[in-house]
Amino acid sequence: MSLIPQTVREQVTNQIRIDLLSGRFPAGTMLREIELAERFGVSRGPVRDAFIQLSHEGYLAYQANRGVMVRHPPDPKDREFITSLRLQIETYVIERGLTDKDPDSVQSVEVALERLKEACDAAEPTQVAIRDIEFHQQILLACGGDDLVPTWRQLCSRMLLTYTRLGDYNQAYSEHVAIFEPFRDNDLKKTIAAVRANIK
């Protein structure tokens, strides 16, 4: 598979992320730069950069004298705690910045919602997971939570390794519509309630 030179790093990173979320690389798998570079038809540099990015996001872990390993999902108790931390960040940012958002940021959230709908309509579980997180990230950015996004993304990546809410795509989309509408209308109470109902 050949990649466009101008966006090699992004394309390699995105594809490996999709592979991780789709289960192509099970937990504990050691990833090899050479093998992936050959697969993508690129040098080892973009693969190495992708490993660094995905390690920062929490999908991969460096093992001393071994290389890069796919991280194991958190156990149920840890996942419950991680979920609570993610929820705290989202509610804090929304409470702080909901009424300060501008029209362009609302449009960015709406675009993310449309992308989620497309993924749900296509019943593409990996894309649903990715678009789900994209939607929530746009909410955070709209409310001025830029500084907290890196920490938040680490929590999300841990949750995505055990993403289980993919059975009813219509419900998944409806839950996000229920977040977007009060968010758009500056209804703090309903926005927070909808976020709490969605993040599980």
UniProtKB/TrEMBL annotation:
Keywords: DNA-binding, Transcription, Transcription regulation. The keyword Endoplasmic reticulum does not apply. PROSITE patterns: HTH_GNTR. The keyword Isomerase does not apply. Residues 6-73 form the HTH gntR-type domain. SUPFAM superfamilies: GntR ligand-binding domain-like (SSF48008), Winged helix' DNA-binding domain (SSF46785). One of its GO terms (molecular function) is DNA binding. It comes from the Bacteria. PANTHER family: GLUCONATE OPERON TRANSCRIPTIONAL REPRESSOR, TRANSCRIPTIONAL REGULATOR, GNTR FAMILY. This is GntR family transcriptional regulator. It comes from Rhodopirellula sallentina SM41.
